[in-house]
């Protein structure tokens, strides 16, 4: 049972509610449901009966709670008719009034150790689990109700309080039934009250509540407090006990109010931060709300299309820090270049080192001519040996009948080697185009979904239009790639940059000559063909990858990056 006391200038009133925190299978609900049970109560004497009725409603979940609002507890065995004997759901009592202290209390069920019926033993761990769940909260104050009728060490609440609060900094002890203390044993409880035994930082209070007979006679609160005052003023040793401020319900009530105020003050910074966080979140959510629509559908459609076009343009031109799209596209262009360069051939010249044969590698990607030993980076490339080049030259000579003319290197041998490499160029370009197409489709469709989100029907139609347009752009780009690919393959090797071609070929040839001279060998026409092929492939590969990449931008509608 949860008791919420609220100081208010209004007249005294009470509202009983039911809070459902667990479902029928005892599983905790992520969002508890609190509903009012009956209307407001203006008579304090009627609160207890309504609270009992509310408890009755919780213990009978299969029946509508409204049926218990006017329940009459005539049957002494009424509790035996309940569907449940225990529930984790809560009866909430909210009391407001000018003389009501600001205080919140949760009255937990008594911890049971024994049951009359075997089938009721299941409630023993349930009650203990419920108590532990509430008192483990480090911000809560544990009010340990300890009966003076039994020894303090034998009371389960003391054990559970120590487990949850080992240092005793948030546990307040309340001694009850002081009239049941046996003669000669008062000093045990007085030592506890003085803090000499079972010490708690918040200390102990002692109260005397009405007996069962008095409660059955519906004793009023004022009368109960008078009886309590008379007891502590007349009975030894309480009438002479010096800690008067720790005796009686009124003093306990004042202490609890004081503790609550202190707890609220400690929690104010966190409360303020939570409020600010929620306020900021609310402003952010408000900022995400779409602007108010105008009365003209045509104007609204024009505005959304214009806004969508603006966002797409910002993405494709990197405006307003919109760089994510081009990062993805540039990654694909880099992958295209890497995949394309992996098709290049490397040429091997057989040499010897300390009497053992080895191959020197010549790679057209080297910025400077440099002989290198074979390594892992070129193992997967097409490797063309000096012997293979010589055989290609011989075959060309046979076809062209040039074998009888000294120093004549057949041009067709170099062309054959170049075209054998160019036949592989189409696949990397198509792979890159497909990847770029998917990136553009995703980016544009995301923009459409964001811009036209208020009109799902428009989203589908706009996406269809965009996909149709991008498909057409893709077809245009494929035509350009095919044109470039066929032009490179079906025409003779060609470049207007003859000077650069001559310089690169000379660099390769000089490097090849140095290698064979170190082996005491004379340069051959085979090295001439190798140098020519490497020089031309270096120029044509860069030309092809650049033109194809430009085709991606132009044929697919991508603007040039500023």
UniProtKB/TrEMBL annotation:
<dbReference type="GO" id="GO:0005874">
    <property type="term" value="C:microtubule"/>
</dbReference>
<keyword id="KW-0342">GTP-binding</keyword>
<dbReference type="GO" id="GO:0016559">
    <property type="term" value="P:peroxisome fission"/>
</dbReference>
<dbReference type="InterPro" id="IPR000375">
    <property type="entry name" value="Dynamin_stalk"/>
</dbReference>
<dbReference type="GO" id="GO:0000266">
    <property type="term" value="P:mitochondrial fission"/>
</dbReference>
<dbReference type="InterPro" id="IPR030381">
    <property type="entry name" value="G_DYNAMIN_dom"/>
</dbReference>
<dbReference type="GO" id="GO:0005739">
    <property type="term" value="C:mitochondrion"/>
</dbReference>
<dbReference type="GO" id="GO:0006897">
    <property type="term" value="P:endocytosis"/>
</dbReference>
<feature type="domain" description="Dynamin-type G">
    <location>
        <begin position="1"/>
        <end position="269"/>
    </location>
</feature>
<dbReference type="GO" id="GO:0005525">
    <property type="term" value="F:GTP binding"/>
</dbReference>
<dbReference type="InterPro" id="IPR027417">
    <property type="entry name" value="P-loop_NTPase"/>
</dbReference>
<dbReference type="GO" id="GO:0016020">
    <property type="term" value="C:membrane"/>
</dbReference>
<dbReference type="GO" id="GO:0008017">
    <property type="term" value="F:microtubule binding"/>
</dbReference>
<dbReference type="InterPro" id="IPR045063">
    <property type="entry name" value="Dynamin_N"/>
</dbReference>
<dbReference type="InterPro" id="IPR022812">
    <property type="entry name" value="Dynamin"/>
</dbReference>
<protein>
    <submittedName>
        <fullName>P-loop containing nucleoside triphosphate hydrolase protein</fullName>
    </submittedName>
</protein>
<dbReference type="GO" id="GO:0003924">
    <property type="term" value="F:GTPase activity"/>
</dbReference>
<keyword id="KW-0378">Hydrolase</keyword>
<keyword id="KW-0547">Nucleotide-binding</keyword>
<dbReference type="Pfam" id="PF01031">
    <property type="entry name" value="Dynamin_M"/>
</dbReference>
<dbReference type="InterPro" id="IPR001401">
    <property type="entry name" value="Dynamin_GTPase"/>
</dbReference>
<dbReference type="Pfam" id="PF00350">
    <property type="entry name" value="Dynamin_N"/>
</dbReference>
<dbReference type="GO" id="GO:0048312">
    <property type="term" value="P:intracellular distribution of mitochondria"/>
</dbReference>
């Amino acid at each position: 049972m949860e008791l919420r006391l609220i100081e208010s200038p209004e007249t005294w009133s009470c509202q009983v509610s039911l809070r459902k925190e667990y479902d029928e299978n005892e599983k905790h609900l992520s969002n508890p449901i609190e509903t009012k049970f009956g209307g407001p109560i203006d008579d304090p004497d009627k609160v207890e009966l309504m609270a009992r009725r509310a408890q009755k409603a919780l213990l009978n979940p299969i029946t509508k709670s409204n049926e218990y609002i006017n329940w009459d507890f005539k049957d002494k065995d009424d509790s035996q008719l309940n569907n449940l004997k225990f529930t984790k759901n809560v009866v909430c009592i909210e009391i407001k009034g000018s003389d009501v202290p600001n205080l919140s209390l949760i009255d937990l069920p008594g911890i049971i150790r024994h049951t009359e019926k075997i089938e009721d033993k299941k409630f023993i761990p349930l009650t203990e689990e419920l108590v532990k769940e509430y008192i483990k909260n480090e911000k809560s104050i544990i009010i340990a109700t300890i009966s003076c009728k039994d020894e303090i060490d034998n009371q389960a609440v003391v054990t559970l309080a120590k487990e949850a609060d080992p240092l005793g900094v948030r546990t307040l002890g309340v001694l009850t039934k002081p009239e049941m203390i046996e003669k000669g044993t008062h000093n045990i409880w007085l030592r506890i009250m003085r803090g000499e035994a079972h010490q708690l930082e918040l200390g102990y209070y002692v109260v005397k509540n009405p007996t069962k007979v008095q409660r059955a006679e519906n004793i009023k609160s004022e009368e109960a407090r008078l009886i309590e005052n008379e007891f502590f003023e007349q009975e030894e040793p309480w009438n002479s006990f010096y800690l008067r401020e720790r005796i009686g319900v009124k003093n306990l009530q004042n202490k609890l109010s004081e503790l609550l105020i202190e707890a609220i003050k400690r929690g104010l910074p966190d409360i303020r931060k939570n409020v600010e966080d929620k306020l900021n979140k609310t402003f952010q959510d408000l900022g995400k709300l779409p602007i108010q629509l105008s009365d003209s559908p045509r104007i609204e459609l024009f505005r959304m299309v214009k806004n969508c076009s603006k966002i797409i343009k910002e993405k494709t031109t990197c405006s307003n820090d919109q760089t994510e799209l081009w990062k993805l596209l540039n990654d694909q262009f880099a992958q295209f270049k890497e995949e394309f360069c992996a098709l290049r051939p490397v040429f091997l010249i057989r040499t010897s080192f300390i009497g053992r044969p080895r191959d020197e590698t010549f790679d057209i990607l080297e910025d400077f001519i440099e002989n290198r030993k074979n390594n892992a980076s070129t193992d997967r490339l097409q490797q063309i040996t000096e012997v293979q080049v010589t055989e290609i030259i011989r075959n060309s000579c046979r076809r062209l009948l040039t074998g009888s003319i000294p120093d004549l290197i057949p041009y067709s041998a170099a062309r054959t080697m170049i075209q054998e490499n160019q036949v592989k160029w189409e696949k990397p370009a198509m792979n890159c185009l497909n990847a770029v197409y998917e990136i553009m489709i995703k980016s544009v469709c995301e923009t459409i979904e964001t811009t036209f989100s208020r009109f799902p029907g428009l989203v589908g139609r706009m996406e269809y239009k965009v996909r149709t347009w991008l498909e057409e752009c893709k077809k245009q780009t494929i035509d350009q790639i095919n044109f470039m690919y066929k032009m490179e393959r079906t025409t003779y090797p060609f470049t207007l940059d003859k000077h650069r071609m001559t310089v690169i070929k000379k660099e390769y040839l000089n490097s090849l000559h140095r290698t064979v001279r170190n082996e005491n060998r004379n340069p051959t026409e085979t090295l001439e063909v190798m140098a020519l092929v490497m020089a031309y492939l270096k120029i044509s590969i860069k030309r092809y990858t650049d033109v194809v990449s430009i085709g991606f931008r132009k044929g697919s509608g991508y603007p040039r990056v500023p």
